[in-house]
Every structure is written in structure tokens, then in C-alpha cells.
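Review form for a predicted model. The reviewer records the input and the model, then writes brief findings.
Reviewer: anonymous (R2)
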Amino acid sequence: MTKIDLEPIDRVTAAIDAHHEKFADSPRSHLGASILGHHCDRWIWLSFRWAFREKIPGRLKRLFRRGHHEEDIITADLKAIGIDLRCTGRDQVRVDLGGHLGGSVDGIIEGGVPGAENTRHIAEYKTHGLKPFEDLVKKGVYESKPMHYAQMQLYMLGTKIKRALYVAVCKNDDRMYTERVKYDEEAAQQLLDRGKRLSTADRMPDPISTDPSWYQCKMCPAYDLCHETKLTKEVNCRTCAHVTAHEDGRWSCARWGADNILTEHQVQGCEAHVLHPDLVPWERRDSNSPYEAVYAKDGVEIRNGEGDAHVFTSKELVELGDACFTDLVREARRVFPDAKLEVKDVKGLPAESN
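Model under review:
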């Protein structure tokens, strides 16, 4: 028998994963309910401000897709045992928690849950790998999955439904775990207050730890921004010093006098972007222009704003980093005022490029 060459299979898998990685997920416009159960205020703020973009491997994207498809299967199983389940799939109920806060519930149960047939519930579906699933079974959702617990508490607050049915499926062996969760008014209100505080905070809050080796920090997708380079790689309205988040859910811009910036415009940003002072590693100094920032490193000053012979755009600062403070790059900025400066080789040497 001819031995089968396994290499083409690996190539197929790699190609599929690469296909999924090509498509960047759109940033979430609102501060989601589950995020408010996260252990770190700073991570929540950075996430909501679109200050970092987590690179998700193709395999994980396929895994997330599987979890999404599982929702229809769970819904069918719950209905099959007589649960009156509504508002699922494309008909999910949007829960508005005020301001920038909100989310969508997986379903609304009007009745039929065994042991609580006459009680309304919100339904929350999750899929887990083997180890997290076993931890969930052992400890329960409150201790094992605090972000999911927070999500359900806020959804119960928003819908005024006092019970939640948590349905978890193990992706390894298809075991199921269900748990009825009671509404905790105090916990829900604390989460809501946290969300309002962080979503409208102008400055970056303290992290859960300033120790780079802290176990909750080491695997964080914002680790570099928080503990190492401290320079955002994202240029959009939410990373701009001109923009303010308001309690009623609006984003306004002091540079252009915009009272309510649409989400699609927030993603794009503009050429007047000035990096938020908490998202750069350099000292900020006084500026003679309200539309520019002055940053200093080792006694050298540079300006950030609408690019010209003396001012770096935010995209250039993000691209070049500390190199912007060198004589070579500042001279290039002066000589080529209409050029876009960018790193052109692996050594990080800057060069002029149109």
C-alpha cells in the first residue's frame, strides 16, 4: 500500500486558517455586558477605547464559529423538552443598559424549565473545552465563569427578568451543564456603575497589577501596551485626545465640533488625530496649539497632529515609535513635509515614502 503524504493536508489546514485570518473583526461599538465581569479595569478601558487589536489565529476563529453554530442546536434541544423559548438567533433581544452599555441575550424563556415551569428566564449559551467545562461543573458559573455571571446579571437587570438559565456544552464530548442563576440586584448595580464609570473615563485607570510577571497579565492581549512599549498601534477616534465619551452614549470631537460621531467614522479616524496621552510612553509637554500635542523623550520634543514639516501624524508615530525623536527622522519630516514616513526594513531604519 502506498503511504499517504500528510503534508498536503497540513497545507489545506494552513490555507483555511489563513483565509479566516484575512478578515479582521469589526470593533464592538458598545461596552458589552460580559466584559464588565473582567478582572482588570484597565483592560476594559483599553478594549472599549479600541487601543489594541487582538490577533486571533484562524483555528480559534473556526472554533468561535462552531460555538456560534451550536446556538441553534441548543435552542432546538430546549424546545424539544417543552421549554417555551423565544427571541433566539436573528430575533435576539437587544438589552440597552443606558449610555454605552448593552448586549443581546441568546433567548427569552417564557416557561417550561423543568422544576420552574412557570418562571421566566433569560437564556445564555456557552461552549467550553474539556478543562474549563470540568471546572465549571465543579465550581458553578459564579466562581468558574465570572464574566458570564456578570453578563447574566446585567441582562436580568435590563430585561427585569429575575432568573437566568445558563446552558454550557463541552466541545470535546458533547456533555451539557445547566444552571439556574438568581438575579442579584446589588451585584448587577455594581456592574452597571462600573460600566458607566469606565466607559466615560477620560483617563486610563490603574491596572490589576503593575508587575509584568503577574499571572493575570502575562497572557493579556494588551500586555505590550500596558507593560512594555506602552504605545498603541491603533489610530481611530477612540484613541484620540480630541474625543470625549458622554454618559448618554455619544462620542464628541473637540477638533471638529462634532457632537455625535458615527461608529463608522470612529473606526476611520482622521488626519487631525492626536494620540491620547495615556497611550504613548513619552512625557507630554504644554503645546501652543489646542489641536497638537508635544511629546518629549531624552530632552527632544516632537509635535503630534495634522502632519506638516514640523508635525508628525499619529499614524507616523505609531509606525516609527521612538525613531521619531532621532535627528534623521525629524530632518526627513522637515525636508519632505508632504511625505508619509514609515519603517522600510526589519532593522527599523526610517525612510521617506509617498
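Findings: The first strand starts at residue 31 and ends at 32.
Further findings: Residues 345-354 have pLDDT under 50 and may be disordered.
Recommendation: see findings above.
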